[in-house]
Amino acid sequence: MIPSPAAIRAATEWLSARARWHPLEMLFWLAAFAAIFVLPDQHLILTEIAWLGLFALSLDLILGYAGIISLGHAAFLGLGAYTAALLAKFHIVDEPVLALLCGGFVAMAVGFVTSFLVLRGSDLTRLMVTLGVALILAEIANRNGWLTGGADGLQGVDIKPVLGLFPFDLAGHTGYTYCLIVLFILFLLARRLVNSPFGLSLLSVKSNPLRALAIGISVDTRLVIIYTISAFYAGVAGALVAQTTAFASLDLFSFDRSADLLLVLIIGGAGYLYGGLIGAIIFKFMQDYLSALTPQYWPFWIGLVLVVLVLVGRERITSWTTPIRRLAARLDWRTTAHLTAPSTEEPGH
Description:
Helix content: over 70%
Number of helices: 16
Radius of gyration: 22 Å
Shape: globular
Number of strands: 0
Strand content: under 5%
Order of helices and strands: HHHHHHHHHHHHHHHH
Structural class: mainly alpha
CATH topology: ABC transporter involved in vitamin B12 uptake, BtuC
CATH architecture: Orthogonal Bundle
């Protein structure tokens, strides 16, 4: 059955509205870039937020849009970090941007290979397989200490200036700007991806894979593609960690990293891209504050927040933002109506 022109036009308008930038989105990124100049003393923690946000974004692509849950996503974080660090240490690739891409591509290749294992079976099977992949890679890195540094980590990493112009500094000024620009570029690509027909088909696969298969959607192919892309994003996040700290350790492969990542998405919410970014901001500032307040018991308070989120529900907790979201939607509607309203003037006037 061929859709009518009216149906095609309606679908096109709906997709355009879905992909349109909203005022709150613009405000979010303006605030993030303004922090470069407004919050120079906070650049170290903001750098951690930026790469953690990218890491959370990588998991959101498979969890929030494809329904693939992972307990071993740190495998790709560690791969990206060690790749970028080794390339810099042995002066194979001195340019940080190229080493960053190499870290992403190595993680992407491993993600593609392991995707065929991950996509088999139920959610419980996927949890165990993803966790197993991370443990195997961590053990490989541990056994080859002559190359990776083993339990002591990879030291002596010399990170050259970005593009040969911007050296990394101890205050994190270059690191935050660099991480934020990388995060923004990859966010734009992810936003374009999830608002495309491919992204919408992922939502149908997540909702009902059997029905998606029945209407002709290649479920396995789409899941392999998004899992591979997610691995690339996580690898880039790992490369950012290595480049901004000039260090890579086995901790990057650990289960704690994957568990913290799930907690970030639980706090911010999955399935709308900004959940990982907002969750990363809340998680890092909460971790920084609580660890300074109670150094021994700060995980207890983060766990308590998680319990409250589960018992009370995110919708009730964030209900105070309803007026703000309504105002943003009203402003967006007025802007759109003004831009798309047909002209009432006659030609020649």
